[in-house]
Design goal:
The chain is of the alpha+beta class and 319 residues long. It has three domains: 27-37 and 233-318, Efflux pump adaptor protein, beta barrel domain (Elongation Factor Tu (Ef-tu), domain 3), CATH 2.40.30; 38-71 and 202-230, RNA polymerase II/Efflux pump adaptor protein, barrel-sandwich hybrid domain (OB fold (Dihydrolipoamide Acetyltransferase, E2P)); 77-194, no CATH class. It has six helices and 14 strands. It has a six-stranded antiparallel beta sheet, with no helix packed on it. The protein has a four-stranded antiparallel beta sheet with strand order 2-9-7-4, with no helix packed on it. Strand 11 (254-259) and strand 12 form a beta hairpin.
């Protein structure tokens, strides 16, 4: 065997050994992340932050005041709403009570004066009628007396009707309309009071504050997350597994997990296995799977919840 043949044979043996070494290479351990359920608190009204009562890293409880806003527009609307409630309330009371004693007295005096005018017009009409029958006055003068008599009667009937309505009281329809206006004004006031109370940002759940996005003096717009953080007791481990390796894991199975940065191990239970639709959801640092493989997520709840709460969020863990 010549020298070239020896080198060629050695190269083939080397490639074969390299291929065997690659085929026997152990699978890379699966890496995941420490996860927690997140929550954010946002103001319902737009205002300038005048005080922040929490700090990043604080554990706040439900009902704690996190910040206070200055909302001058709501203050103005509150004053307007209170004024509308007073005005409509007075109208409602007026419609229920009806006219005052002085108003009734004025109407009675007006009725008496109109009655006297009618009596005088009636007497004048009777005289004019007799004189007209004897041709002592012209038809024009007689027509004038008839018009005065009818006008005095109409005025007396109008005053009597006005007095009768006052004594009877305000109509039920008017009272109902006044009550409706008062209820509407009260509803506006309640709405403004709710908006006024929203100047305080209140924690609706227990939460560990991670981020405060704005500072005192800045403008917080409605719906913008001002406080964000993690819900206590929601720590879990998240892994992404390719389709070719998912058969090794079953729902409910106990798993051992290593935490590199603490050099500790813990146990957990597979709570859920679900398919992921996007590559961006993969949490494994070095995914090793074929492009046609589906990717699944393992959600593992820790056995020792107290130990899990001490772990840093998004820290790497090894399955």
């Amino acid at each position: 065997m010549n020298t070239k043949s020896i080198f060629a044979y050695a190269g083939i043996i080397g490639l074969s050994l390299a291929g065997m070494a690659c085929s026997d290479k152990p699978a890379r351990p699966l890496e995941g992340k420490v996860k927690r359920e997140t929550l954010a608190f946002s103001p319902k009204v737009t205002g300038r932050i005048i005080k922040i009562y929490a700090q990043e890293g604080d554990l706040v409880q439900r009902g704690d005041t996190l910040a206070m806003l200055d909302v001058p527009e709501v203050n103005a609307k509150l004053a307007q709403a209170k004024g509308a409630v007073k005005a409509t309330g007075a109208q409602r009371t007026l419609s229920r009570n009806g006219p005052t004693e002085n108003q009734i007295r004025q109407l009675r005096a007006k009725q008496a004066g109109t009655q006297e005018q009618f009596n005088y017009a009636k007497k004048s009409f009777v005289r004019a009628k007799a004189m007209f029958a004897d041709s002592m006055i012209t038809p024009q003068a007689y027509d004038e007396m008839v018009a005065k008599h009818q006008g005095a009667r109409a005025q007396l009937e109008a005053v009597n009707a006005e007095l009768g309505e006052a004594l009877k009281g305000v109509r039920m329809e008017t009272q109902t309309a006044a009550q409706g206006q008062a209820d509407q004004a009260l509803g506006v006031l309640q709405e403004v009071e709710v908006a006024y109370s929203e100047r305080y940002i209140i924690a609706s759940n227990d939460m560990q504050v991670e981020t405060i996005s704005l500072r005192e003096g800045e403008l917080a717009t409605a719906g913008y997350p001002l406080f964000s953080g993690y819900l206590p007791g929601t720590t879990y481990f998240r892994f992404t597994i390719p389709e070719s390796r998912i058969s090794a894991y079953k729902k409910g199975e106990q798993i051992t997990i290593r935490i590199p940065y603490t050099k500790m191990e813990t146990t957990g239970r597979i709570q859920n296995i679900k398919q992921l639709n996007r590559y961006a959801d993969v949490t494994t640092a070095y995914p090793d799977y074929q492009i046609e493989d589906a990717v699944y997520e393992l959600k593992i709840v820790p056995g020792d919840t107290k130990q899990a709460e001490s772990l840093l969020a998004n820290a790497t863990v090894v399955l």
